[in-house]
Amino acid sequence: QVQLVESGGGLVQAGGSLRLSCAVSRGTFSSYAMGWFRQAPGKERELVAAISRGILSTYYADSVKGRFTISRDNAKSTVYLQMNSLKPEDTAVYYCAARIGLAIETINYNYWGQGTQVTVSS
Questions:
Q1: What Å distances lie between residue 106 and 37, 48, 82, 96, CA to CA?
Q2: Dist. CA 62–CA 109, nearest whole Å
């Protein structure tokens, strides 16, 4: 099975930054579209950012545009989410996900990580 392991979460003050990493193993990383999702208590899981395979394109939720940047390093089989200017409303469990298809702006991803907690204090 494809394994995704997130890291980099933690506690940060509002206005601070974190970089999340997701290492993919037991699969062909370069063939997957990759996405970052988050889920806050009492809310549905939402797509935060995504990046395609091949000729790269990206998607960002309106709430994070200009603050978050998704990138991938195929040589390291790793996708990153750089989060700047963090706000308390960014507090959530962040999940890395991989998708076999071409589409990225979707919740229908095939493989999921365990999640990493991001807490932003005010």
A1: 10, 11, 21, 13
A2: 20
